[in-house]
Amino acid sequence: MNKDLRSFLAEVERLGPEFFLRIDKPVDPLYEPCVIQQKLAALGRYPVLRFDRVKGSSIPLVTNLFGDYKMLGLALGISPDEPKRRILETFRSRLAAPIPTATVSRSQAPIKEVIRKGEEVDLGRLPILKHAELNGGKYFTIGFLIVRDPETGILNAGVYRHEIKSKNSFACMFNPAHHAGYIYRRYKELKRPMEAVLVLGHHPAAVMGSLARGAMESNELEIMGALMGEPLEVAPAETVDLPVPAWAEIAIEGILDPASETADGPFSEYTGFYGPAKDPVGLMQVRAVTMRKDAIYHDLDPSHREHNLSGALSFEASVFEAVKKLVPSVHGVYMPPSGSCVFTAYVQIKKRVPGEGKSAGLAAIAAEPNLKIAIVVDDDVDIYDEAQVLWAIATHCEADRDLTLIPNAMGAHLNPSAYGERRHEKGPMNTKIIIDATRPATMPFAERIRPPKEVWERIRLEDYIGRG
Question: What local confidence, expressed as pLDDT, does residue 214 receive?
Fold first, then answer.
């Protein structure tokens, strides 16, 4: 048996209400689960939320699986009490060792407990949400789509936005630079339909694997296994020639015919702003829906904290590896929710050579096109504490020496401040910023104040002020 969504939910529920809340009161799929999640976030609370009664569906909904950095660690088997740096360390080490999938028969796959084909297909049975007022409609937001490269035969999985169009069709909006975007264009050139399976609900480590930023030749199903620490079990699909994760909750099979496309959006994007409508985009015609008999629907509230954190480790790992090539003494990379987990990076290095701070920043900026601001700090600055990062900028940095601007660089087209080749026009470029907030490597600098190590380790607050 694979790790799956329900095994993770049971693990998190045992940790108590800080990590898991179950809501039995009926909720409307128009906005209500999202607003509840957002109101908790305003109080600094990011538990997994399970809604047992979503109006119009008999299927329960879970959300906020990626609402907190600690939750990413739990998905990788790391206790909330362990240092946050262990999360990226573990992610990177597993990412480097993909595990081939294991095929099981249809009879062994819980995803085959309920099978609906043809006229039986009705996406309206699912508790699909409308997340924001100006969104074009209801969306699948955290399902991962499995497709096959027509040239290499390699499988690809990724998360995209999917607007519901009818009881048996939905849009597939691929970013042009995403792997599925390249694959879809290849099918378009070949004038062939593309088979696909959208998977809704699996262990969060598997979902994180679908978000990994690897080479085009990477097989994300093998990365899912690496992050789960065991082979991903798959079974043959019913109507397309693709594998389906056997322990997933819901799988939607179909084809995208490039000759029959649709429009999509607007959509509440990760930037915190509405992304514009797109036309044309792919249209998936559903051939079959398979699911577990007591299936759980997994949703993600877009444009808020978990939207950005869901892929944070993939971005951090990519930036870490790029910086390491230039600055081997890099200690950590953190891409905080305050920067949408993609626009800002805090890079921690043990500086040994003059200029290493700026080199680390340049490597970070080059590694990730979406990255707009790289802030480099010394190894004694906690990159997971934004107050310390801001302190380092305020006390270590002088703008005329330590601030670098790189205009007209390829960036994030969804960033509302992005511009084109004509500066007043919207486009895919940003001005990148590097802030070197490290101390000089060869010159004297003020001594940082620290508590005595022996006293710090000996004193336990509960001995003095209790546990209340």
Answer: 82
